[in-house]
Every structure is written in structure tokens, then in C-alpha cells.
Amino acid sequence: MKIIGHRGARGHAPENTLLSLQTAMVLGADMVEFDVYALPSGELVLMHDHRVDRTTSGQGRTMHQKFSQLRSLDAGDGEKVPTLQEALDLVKGKIGVNIELKGRFTAHLVAKTIEAALQQPWWTPKHFLISSFDHHELQDFRSFAPEIPIAVLEHTIPLTYAASAQIQGAMAVNPNHEFLTREYVEDAHSRGLKVFAYTVNEPDDIEDMVRLGVDGVITDYPDRARAVLAMRCSSRARMEKSTKVLYESSWMGGGDKANR
């Protein structure tokens, strides 16, 4: 199961900052997820909200910010709002990236940035996953970069389960874990789709996702998910060892009885 750091490692560092991305990598994430807005002046910046108030020292709508003004803000712990290019330069193909498209007219600029990144030997199309709740923006991205996989974000579980994601040519669905069911996971898998559930932070919820058979969890705490998976592997190893001991003991006992 893949561990995908939500906005980097949001539980440990200011979200959507280079520090958060670096923290997720250190904590064992297989991928990092972050949000990207295209400013009217053309810069691509990491930002989740349509306003900057919650995550920075500034105020106002994200799309009304000048790039120089946005860069002057404190995004937490002295971090600056990074650009998409800076995020890619940091990750440098060491792990995968899940880029969530925010705002209008983001798709084309993100596709161009990825196209340039693919000229570097450490990036391949499989390193990238593009997701969005805005399905029109997703389809725009597909028209610009059809070789890059996309994922459909879903607040709730549709009546048709994962059918709409399949129709859109997605590689994966990213559903809200609170509404996720085994039936949905099985339907997605039957359509050849991966399931990456968000935002899964508590160990018992991570355990539930493992039991449901999801392919990955998007979490603020990559270290918690890594610990849960390690514990499951350890428990499985102990169980297999115990089973082997019981089998060998039974087999040897049977052999002794037969020879008496």
C-alpha cells in the first residue's frame, strides 16, 4: 500500500511548503500530494485555499495575489509559498508526486511544467499523478498531456461507484475515506482503477483502509501509516512463524507415532 503525504506532511510542518515536502520524504512517504494554483500572471504556486488567510500571514483571494506579494508572506515557520518548479526540484524524482489542480486555467501550465521536467532523467510519466475535484480541469489536462495519469477526487461515493472515473480515462480514484466501502473498492478494482483514500490520519482508520484493500492512503502523518504497515508485517511474520512451528511439531509427532 502506498503512503502519500498530504500537502507534504501537514501533521508535522506547514502545509504545501518545501519543509513539508522534505519532511514527508524523510518520514517514508512513497509520494507527496500538494495543491497548485495558477496565478493570473502565470506562476504556479503551492496553495490549497482560494484565500491565503488560513495558511499565510497575508489576506485576500489567492487569485488576486501578485507573485511578489505572495512570496513576501510567511507560510508558517518562516517558510515561503513555493512554486511548482521549486517543489519538483526538491523531490527530483526520488518519490512520486500527486499534483491537485486548483482554480481555473491550471491544467495547461502544469502540463507544460511536467513536459519540461520529463526532459530530466530522474522523471518519468509514472512519477506523476494529477488529481482534481474539477473534472473539466482534469479533462483539459488530459488533452495537453495524455501520457500522464490522472485521478478523480470524490467528496462522497457516487451512485455509479467508480464508473465516472473510468469514463474519464482515470488511472485512479481518490475518495473520502469516511464514506469508503468494500463495494466501492471492489468496483474500482474491477474497472482497473487504483484507490487512494484521503485524508487518513488515525492508526485505526489506516487499519480499516488496509482491510478494505485500498492501494494507498493520503495522510498528514506518513510516519503513522508507515508504523501501521510495519506492525502488520511484523504480526504476519510472527503468525507465519507460529504456523510453521505448529506444522513441523505436528508433522514430527505424527512421524514418531507411525514408527512406534
Spell out the blueprint of helices and strands.
Elements (H helix, E strand, L loop, with lengths): L1 E5 L11 H9 L4 E8 L5 E3 L20 H5 L12 H8 L4 E7 L4 H11 L10 E5 L2 H10 L5 E5 L8 H5 L4 E4 L6 H9 L3 E4 L5 H10 L3 E4 L2 H38 L1
Parallel strand pairs: 1-2, 1-9, 2-4, 4-5, 5-6, 6-7, 7-8, 8-9
Antiparallel strand pairs: 2-3
Helix pairs in contact: 1-3, 4-5
What does this structure look like?
The protein folds into two domains: 2-222, TIM Barrel (Alpha-Beta Barrel); 223-260. Strands 1-2-4-5-6-7-8-9 form an eight-stranded parallel beta barrel, surrounded by six helices. The chain is globular, with a radius of gyration of 22 Å. Strand 5 (128-132), helix 5 (135-144) and strand 6 (150-154) form a beta-alpha-beta unit. It has 260 residues and is an alpha/beta fold. It contains nine helices and nine strands. The protein is 40% helix and 17% strand.
Number of strands: 9
As a percent range, the share of strand residues is 15-25%
Supply the number of helical segments: 9
Number of domains: 2
Structural category = alpha/beta
Separation of termini? Answer: 50 Å
Q: Percentage of helical residues?
A: 40-55%
* CATH architecture heading of the largest domain: Alpha-Beta Barrel
CATH-wise, what's the superfamily of the largest domain?
Answer: Phosphatidylinositol (PI) phosphodiesterase
Q: If you average the pLDDT, what whole number results?
A: 93
Sequence of secondary-structure elements: EHEEHHEHEHEHEHEHEH
Q: Judging from the principal axes of the Cα atoms, what is the shape? A: globular
State the low-pLDDT regions, or none.
Answer: 255-260
**Quick one: biggest sheet?**
8 strands, parallel, barrel
Q: Report the C-alpha radius of gyration, rounded.
A: 22 Å
